[in-house]
Amino acid sequence: MNVLHKTPALADAVLASLADIPFPSVDADRPAALLTRCPAAAVTPLSDAPDLAKVAGVGQVHVKDERGRMGLGSFKALGAAYVIARDAEEGNAKGRTYVTASAGNHGLSVAAGAQAFGARAVVYLADTVPEGFADRLRSFGADVVRHGAIYEEAMAGAAQAAKDNGWALLSDSSWPGYLDRPHTLMEGYLVLMQEAVAQMPAPPTHIFLQAGVGGLATACAAYARVAWGDAPRIVVVEPEVAPALYASVKAGSAQVTEGPESAMGRLDCKEPSLIALKGLARDADDFMLISEDEGAAGSAACADAGFPTTPSGGAGIAGLLVAGSALGLTTESRVLVILSEQAS
Fold first, then answer.
1. pTM for this entry
2. Which long-range contacts (CB under 8 A, 24 or more apart) does 38-44 make?
């Protein structure tokens, strides 16, 4: 475990470097209203986890459980499908081809959204993504293209295909010149935190948020600040082999990182979303890196507590379990975590 405590100077440096990048949306009502029209939409549960609280040495752990979200198995159902639904409202989805790269569940959201609204989905996958996941994408009618050894190479292929064919690129990351769609996509993720705020019996003292490119973490952190102000200590958790946000905040500007493949594959992203980086530089308190062994221990603890998930889905919980007094946890702490995906 490594922890970077954000300072005002670090935050100011990142914010200055991203002056032309928008902050994340906090308008949860817009995606929530659109979701009410979806037959598969339903509020996901917030569960007490006394066994996890005991292992972590804290008073309470509240688990926002996204494993059943809209039948797709993860919070990502709230993202790309919401963008496509917004396009459909404007009459711009039917017959359109959406192309993306995916390290996991984002591709399912694109595929399901395209299928629901009469569009086509093309999903680029790196060679490391299991073929079983490719088959699941195909079951939603998506065309799958293998491209590159890592996620970033797959995304480069998807971006080139969008340019060559006039397709709509639908990434869950953002970079200069590509901001509008990911900004809308992250707005969809606000729904889960809006639900959690309504479900929590009292504001949390700590929130642990796992991050890949950072979309989930920044949406949750931004809405938590609107709801609870400065009270919760917000901790962003990444694999130590993919420290995109940690390294960027430490350096004061966006960084491209390098490292081996992580078993926390959905979080194995070497470059941050710029919108997410800007939001988290403002809203997060700490940035934590966990080892592969710590990630595996976190998912094992989740399974033992009755919340089976992947090392990616339980990475926030893994961070909680090793944080201890370094992040101000005590036996009185009340912690909110996100269980972001079902066990594979």
1. 0.93
2. 38/70, 38/85, 40/70, 40/71, 41/70, 42/68, 42/70, 43/195, 44/68, 44/69, 44/192, 44/195
